[in-house]
Amino acid sequence: MTSLIQKLWRMRGGVHPSFHKDESTHQPIQTAPIPPELVIPLQQHIGRSSIIKVVVGEKVLKGQLLAATNAVSPSAAVHAPTSGVVTAIEERLLPHPSGLSGQCIVIDTDGLDAWDESLASPTNNDYQSVANEQLLDLIEAAGIVGLGGAAFPSAVKLASVGESVIDTLIINGAECEPYISCDDQLMRERADEILIGIDILMQLLNAKRCLIGIENNKPDAIHALEVALSMQSNLKSIDKIAVASVPTMYPSGDARQLTKILTGVEIPKNVRSPSLGSICHNVATAYSIYQAVVESKPLVSRIVTVTGNGVKQPQNFEALIGTPFSFLVAQAGGYTKKAERLVMGGPMMGFALSTDDVPVVKATNCILVSSVDQLQLSDDDVTETEKIVMPCIRCGKCMDACPVSLLPQQMYWHTRAKDFEKVEEHKLSDCIECGACSYVCPSHIPLVDYFKFAKTEIRAQKLAAVKADQSRERHEFNEYRKVRDKEEREEKRRKQKEALQAKKAKESAESGAAETPAVDDKQDAIKAAMARAKAKKAARQAEKDGTAVAEPVVEDKQDLIKAAMARAQAKKAARLAETDTIKPTTDKQNAQQEDSNNAV
Amino acid sequence: MLMAILIMVGLAVFFGALLGYASLRFKVEGDPITDQIDQLLPQTQCGQCSYPGCRPYADAIAKGEVGINQCPPGGESTIQALADLLDVEVIPLNEEMGEHLDEPTVVIIREETCIGCTLCIQACPVDAIVGAAKLMHTVITSECTGCNLCLPPCPVDCIDIIPLKQRIDTWVAPEPVSALTKIPVRVEAKS
Q: How many domains does chain B divide into?
């Protein structure tokens, strides 16, 4: 087994905050009861919203598809976490730093927790004989996303491997963020299932080895997995899997940092890890892949750590997606008097929420309720309740702590000067927002908050530029169209005028020489000829019948009358055709536009 | 002496001819600086700068006819960008032209009140309103620039200005409060 791990590398930078993991690991994972109402956001993943497949008032069963993947861009399916009735599809508050709301499906639970029968295919222990494409479909259909926090659709990530040869599958069990213990507990209690999930991943990726990276402050989890490894002998890839105990150092749990520690390969920002021979999945993701493939259960629940000195009994829950935070906190004994901050995620990378009326989503690994001073995480006694922000003294500590070799102090100055071009030149987009720089800053500058601001501001500016280009294009077309319409109108008017003049000229010519029928109009001439022919025929008929032959002068006159009538008819038809083709709208619009032009 | 003068005159004639040819051969249509200025303007086409659209305003700035501070939708950031481009002083926004709104807005048509007169359609500079005579009109919100030019012509006042709804993917994280505003200063009492 040890031959699989030749050596551990050192990651750059990093910090040692106090980890506070023990608080929430005293008791085993509890299954949280079903709350009366579940709120399931449509977008719980990176990418586009999923497409709604239910209607308000519909009765749904546990595991039933609520929203399907969107074929255009990466997205994940969403399933009903329990049985009940869809009472609304509306905007609800989301667990997001912005405090904005988004489309959610609200389910009134019936407490029966009845599974959708169509899902309950016979337990599929025989996944080894299932084709890879089918396995991928199963993972996609189960709505699995990366449960480490990024929530990227797993099927998309697995499919993106393509033809690349995977040397190492990295299973991320580092869980470096303070307070969070959901992966730790999962590995302790469900190691066998995780290993089966890993076996499925190994089969999919055909990787040479799999390393499960766990920080060495979780000896129980390491032990549990090692025991499971020695017991599970029927797994195909058992010889290729090894547990790697990595030094405790924040943020070793970031996928790129863990890859560096375990394989020595540094993955550049714009390169996908498969092209460098590795791919990283979270332990919880491996567990839900096991559930999807072997138990045919879609991702409807996850382990959530509810912890901090603001809750009475910190512990881990297996909570249904959509469970309100307030409900879970109540399950953990409710708030204590020290509760001052509500954070989703850990104290380093998490974000504060203004209300507990938000649902657990697929990315919710931790609900942290804490007093302000406990969030500072330093070991030395913090007497002041809030550390005062002081000016940057250019000590460079942030630079040493940064795991991705950035210069936080430079980026800080440029962000404050709003010189976003310079910030981008300093590779702001590489920042993983781990917060190590803010943690070490002796002036307590919230550096990472500046970088989050700069990132979103740059994105907003880019979007605004795109919109401006679009508006410019539309305005240019609008102007072009107005000019074109005007020209067309003038052209038409000119033609009408000419026609009128021609008619007048013709009329005057006709009045001048009445004997010669006007032959300028071809059609008229033809009609006149036809009329003449008819008249002749009639005359012949009359001759045959023995009636008196009409005098030639009269015939001529008759011809003239007929020709004139035919002309009038043709004109009438032409007028009718014209009014038919021109829409009343444009006529009216033109009239109005002329009016407004006159007004100007 | 004569030779030197002839050489100099010859060179002058040669280079003069070269420059003259180049100015004809590589003639630039329009003023490229106008394009650059136009790139920085927000393209709302609202006409608040007193010019009929962003391009005419850019043209006027390029000709030096008007200040860079007449674009209320662009606000301070546009003035800053224009000042950088043209290497001129940053001046505060000319409030006569209108106020800069921090929140972007768009318009919506109250559809039950709309009588279908098409006047707003003609007023819209970016063709963001759809509808036909005597039929209900509506605004394509994603195309609306918030110029509000459709408001005055509406005979039944059925157009409302609403703040553009923020989405999570367009949200901007708040800027942290500047560290330097928080320097603790101890003031010693004068004896």
A: 2
Residue B177 lies in a domain: no
The tokens 């077309």 sit on which residue?
A477
Q: How many whole angstroms separate alpha carbon A364 and alpha carbon A307?
A: 13
pLDDT of the residue at B191: 52
Least Cα distance to A314 among A4, A19, A30 occurs for A30
Nearest chain A residue (CA) to B180: A391
**Token pair listed for A575:** 């007028």
Q: Does residue A18 belong to the interface with chain B, where contact is any CB pair within 8 Å? A: no
pLDDT of residue B184: 53
* Residues with Cβ within 8 Å of residue A438, at least 6 apart in sequence: A398, A445, A446, A447, A448, A449
Q: Do the domain assignments include residue B25?
A: no
Looking at residue A591, what is its pLDDT?
A: 44
* A529 alpha-carbon distance from chain centroid: 74
What is the C-alpha to C-alpha distance for residues A108 and A54, in angstroms, rounded to an integer? Answer: 14
Q: Is the pLDDT of residue A556 over 80?
A: no
Judged on CB neighbours under 10 Å (0-12, 13-18, 19+), A211 is buried
Helix (H), strand (E), coil (C) string for B104-155? CEEEEECCCCCCCCCHHHHHCCCCCEECCCCCCCEECCCCCCCCCCCCCCCC
CB contact under 8 A, A456 and B178: no
Which residues of chain B are within 8 Å of residue A96 when distances are taken between CB atoms? 168, 171
Q: Give how far the C-alpha of residue B43 lies from the chain's centroid of Cα atoms, to the nearest Å.
A: 5
Q: Closest by alpha carbon to A253, among A183, A191, A206?
A: A183
For residue A391, give the nearest of B38, B173, B180 by CB distance. B180
Q: For the residues B32-50, what does the mean pLDDT come to?
A: 90
| Full domain range(s) for residue B150 | 105-163
Could you tell me which residues of B are annotated as the binding site for [4Fe-4S] cluster?
Answer: 46, 49, 54, 71, 114, 117, 120, 124, 144, 147, 150, 154
Question: Model ipTM?
Answer: 0.81
Asked whether the beta carbons of residue B45 and residue A475 sit closer than 8 angstroms, the reply is yes
Select the residue of B53, B167, B173 nearest A475 (Cβ to Cβ): B53
Q: pTM for this one?
A: 0.78
Residues A67-110 pLDDT 10s? 988 777 778 889 999 999 999 999 999 999 988 888 899 999 99
CB atoms within 10 A of CB A540: 11
Q: How confident is the model at residue B186 (pLDDT cuts 50, 70, 90)?
A: low
- Count the residues in chain B: 191
- Burial of residue B30 (CB within 10 Å: 0-12, 13-18, 19+) is exposed
* Strand order through the sheet with A84-93: A37-41, A101-109, A84-93, A59-60
Identity (one letter) of the amino acid at A25? T
- Pair (B36, B91) in one structural domain: yes
- Which stretch of A54-63, A77-86, A549-558, B62-71 has the lowest confidence by average pLDDT? A549-558
Contact B43 A475 (CB under 8 A): yes
Return the residue of B nearest to A43 by Cα: B168
Nearest to B175 among A97, A453, A471 (CB): A453
Does A321 score more than 90 pLDDT? yes
Tens digits of per-residue pLDDT, B100-112?
Answer: 888 889 999 998 9
B187 in a structural domain: no
Question: For an interface test with B, which of A474, A479, A486 has the most B Cβ atoms less than 10 Å from its Cβ?
Answer: A474
- Rounded to the nearest angstrom, the minimum Cα separation between B134 and chain A is 9
Q: State the CATH number of the domain containing residue B112.
A: 3.30.70.20
A241-279 pLDDT, tens digit each: 999 999 999 899 999 999 999 999 988 888 888 888 999
Question: How many other CB atoms are there within 10 angstroms of residue A547's CB atom?
Answer: 10
Q: Is residue B42 part of a domain?
A: yes
